[in-house]
C-alpha cells in the first residue's frame, strides 16, 4: 500500500494556532475558494452528549485516528478504556496529552502499535477524509482492527462523494495557510458503497445533533497483514509522544513522559 502524503496538517500553523487558543475561525479551503468550516471550538471542548453516545458504542481497545486536541481520548480514558489517539499534528497530540489522554504523533499510514488488534477505530469529525482516498483509508483501518472489529465513522451531513486538494486557512480570504493536501468528503451512502465493496458490514447508521455516523464491522476472518515484527500490542502503558517520529519505520514512541 502506498502512503498518501497526508501529513500537511502537521505543518499547518493556522491549525496549531487555533488549537492553542481553542478558537477559530478555521477552514479547509479548496483551490476554487470553497470553504469547509472546521469546528475547532467544539473539538477543543469536552465531549458533548452526541460524542458520548458514540463512545458508548465502542468495543475493546480504541484507536482514535486523527484525534485532534483529544476530547474523545480524554473521555474514554476517564471511562477506564484503553485508548490511544494518533495525529500528525504535534499541537493536537500535546493538547491530548495535557487532557490526560495517551497520544502518538504519527500518521495512520505509518506503522502503529497494536496493528490488527484494536477493538474499535474512530474516524470522527469527518476524518474519513484523511488521505483523500477513502478506499485506502478503509483498507488501512481493516489492517488496524482485530478480526470483526468495529469502525465508527462520522460522515458528511449531505450525500456527497468528493475528493479535493485543500489547505488549512484561518480566514475567508485567499491568504496563506498550511501546505496543500488531499482530503475527501463522504456522506453515509458513499461510505457504505466503498465499505460494502471492500467486504465491510454496516451495523448501524444514525444522526444526532445534526451530525451523521455509520458503524461498520470488519471481516471476521483474519486478513493478510503487513509483516511488522515491531508492532506493539494496544496497552495502557505510556505511548505518549509530543514529537513526530523521525523515521516512519520506527514503531516506538519517540518521547515518553
Ligand atoms: C477534521 S480534524 C478532526 C479533529 C478531531 N477528530 C478532534 O476530535 O478534534 C482532522 C484531524 O486529523 C489529523 N490528521 C490528518 N491527516 C492525518 C493522518 N494521515 N494520520 C493521522 N491524523 C491525521 C489532523 O491533524 C486533524 O487533527
Automatic annotation (TrEMBL):
It comes from the Bacteria. GO terms for biological process: methylation. Residues 248-257 have a biased composition (Basic and acidic residues). Residues 217-257 are annotated as: Disordered. Transmembrane segments: none annotated. InterPro entries: SAM-dependent_MTases_sf. It holds the Pfam family Methyltransf_23. GO terms for molecular function: methyltransferase activity. Keywords: Methyltransferase, Transferase. This is Methyltransferase type 11. It comes from Streptomyces capoamus.
